[in-house]
């Protein structure tokens, strides 16, 4: 009697899952046949929706609910003469649909399961190996489950360096299935001309020309602080040349040009 109750409870939990979900590629399932423990199988549904099961081989389960899969396997076992009666139970151990995608400048971009124990934004960032050296401190989340999809952003640097613990907790939102976390490349600026280390550098809001030149190693012996220009794109996307002083503020993608001294 106790065994029957357990089987019924397991079947009920599977049916609850099946109300809104069907099996898909990547789902990890456990299939058991009552009274035949040697047939118990844990396997992933292939990308083409196939599941390999003992005795009957590959069967198409993609697009079927768990109860429908149970009935399919039971029928095959009986029709092909392996069992006279077959009571099959299918439990979804890990659903591919219950995943969060992490894209962009993280160490290990990809899809991660909510069922792995990760629940919050910070959990998934940590699971992906963290933000890479090229990654921005501003992280964007797309909530695809809403219509239309909702977009919101979190500035990690401001959050951890300037916000209260309570604000940090509030910003560590719970992820839901289908969410997309995107970490773009950090904004940059350029230092060219008579700098000791001309190149590309990470931009931070509020930076001045003096700070930009400092990042580039300072003005070379052939350069002058009096001949500094900034090449900046206007709203139409065209480059315009601006005269600048050391206290002038730069913006992302600015090109700081240090001129050669005349004598």
From TrEMBL:
Sorted alphabetically, the Gene Ontology BP terms of this entry are:
monoatomic ion transport
Q: Which residues form the SLBB domain?
A: 98-183
Q: What residues does the Soluble ligand binding domain cover?
A: 188-239
Chief place of localization: membrane
Domain Polysaccharide export protein N-terminal span(s) in chain numbering? 22-92
What Pfam families does UniProt report for this protein, alphabetically?
Poly_export (PF02563), SLBB (PF10531), SLBB_2 (PF22461)
| Membrane topology category | Multi-pass membrane protein
Single GO molecular-function term?
A: polysaccharide transmembrane transporter activity
Task: Please give the GO cellular component terms listed in this UniProt entry.
Answer: cell outer membrane; pore complex
Q: Which family would the database say this protein is a member of?
A: Belongs to the BexD/CtrA/VexA family.
Stated name of the protein: Uncharacterized protein
Query: What lineage is this protein's organism placed in?
Result: unclassified sequences, metagenomes, ecological metagenomes
